[in-house]
Amino acid sequence: MPSRFLLSLCLCTLMSGCEAQSLALPDSEQLTEDKVKAIAERVEARYPDLSRNLREQILATVVRSLDDMVFIEGGEFEMGDFGTLCNYDPSNMGTWPYGQDPERLCPITRFNHDDHLHKVRLSSYHLSRFQTRHDDFDLFRTSQGLPLFNEEHRDREDLADYFAADIPAPVKTWQEAKDYCLWLGELSSYSVDLPSEAQWEFAARNRGQYIQYATEDGNLHNGKNILHDKETFVVPIGQFTPNLLGLFDMTGNATDWVNDWYGEGYYAESPLSNPTGPDTGTEKVRRGSYYAETNWMSAITVRRWPDNPVSDGYYPGTSFRCSLQSDQQL
């Protein structure tokens, strides 16, 4: 009897070991197998009580999020409103300064204190080619033991587009966006965060060139590289051509939260190297534009959007993308 008991105990132990074996490793375009294994081990250690299926979803999401990071070589640029033709055609922007004296150009925007053109020098970094997907944000909330937002409406057929898996994730607060990026960083052991305002603009302008629209050619073509004007809702991420660095949806569909506090006079006092915005404030900055705006006026690379970091609901059109704060390529 003791022998049979010990044999059963050994078999149970072996079976438990098999059940607890490493998660199925997803393929990665940028990470070595050892790095993927290390992420899997962190997911296992962080979420021992979640089902295997959820843990594998988390692992796949973290790996895919890192694969989506575009390395952006740093450099120096003039940040802010660099001017445009007083009468211009957004589908045929030409090359700045359009054969004119830059001093004689008109402002691109007339609001939000972006008119102080100032030099900025950035270290290299990574920025996600896509905004965060709705289903990835749902998975994050589930991992934190939080209910899905508006869960009581999830089964309504008339709201299916609102909860579609691949639309830009709507967030109620700036902190939720930041927490999601930090979550990716915790599980990957990389320094993942929201981008700074300067990093967002540098990337949108193809490493700081004088580009007004973050598209494949610097022009707007409704329905090809941006939503049609008066589009009534967001569309799945990556539907339109990316900008010259391979970044999608920086001209419309949904805005991106960035890390910075908003300061009216910050551009005039911004440090040269890697500015991160004022130390404190009451509003955070959103960049880009969203589906309900007029494209040629709003989908511009230099526009700043100060906003309350806490909203009263999860509204489509307010989203984010994460950055990897490392000057070394993955």
The unreliable regions are: 1-20
Percent of residues in beta strands: 5-15%
Write down how many β-strands occur, each being a DSSP E stretch of 2 or more residues. 10
Oligomer: single chain
The CATH homologous superfamily corresponds to paralog of FGE (formylglycine-generating enzyme)
**What is the average of the pLDDT values?**
92
CATH class: Alpha Beta
CA-based shape = globular
CATH domain fold name: paralog of FGE (formylglycine-generating enzyme)
SSE order, one letter for each helix or strand: HHHEEEEHHEHEHEHEEE
Q: Given the structure, what is the number of helices?
A: 8
Structurally, the number of domains stands at 1
- Percent range for helical residues? 25-40%
Give the neighbour order of strands across the main sheet: 1-4-10-5
SS-derived structural category: alpha+beta
Distance N to C terminus: 56 Å
Largest sheet: 4 strands, antiparallel
- From the alpha carbons, calculate the radius of gyration and give it in angstroms: 23 Å
Task: Give the tags.
alpha+beta; SUMF_sf; 8 helices; CTDL_fold; 330 residues; 27% helix; paralog of FGE (formylglycine-generating enzyme); signal; Sulfatase-modifying factor enzyme-like domain-containing protein; four-stranded antiparallel sheet; 12% strand
Describe what you observe in this structure.
The chain has 330 residues and is α+β, with helices and mostly antiparallel strands. The protein has one domain (32-324): paralog of FGE (formylglycine-generating enzyme), CATH 3.90.1580. It is built from eight helices and ten strands. It has a four-stranded antiparallel beta sheet with strand order 1-4-10-5. The relative contact order is 0.17. Residues 66-303 form the Sulfatase-modifying factor enzyme-like domain. GO terms for molecular function: formylglycine-generating oxidase activity. This is Sulfatase-modifying factor enzyme-like domain-containing protein. Keywords: Signal.
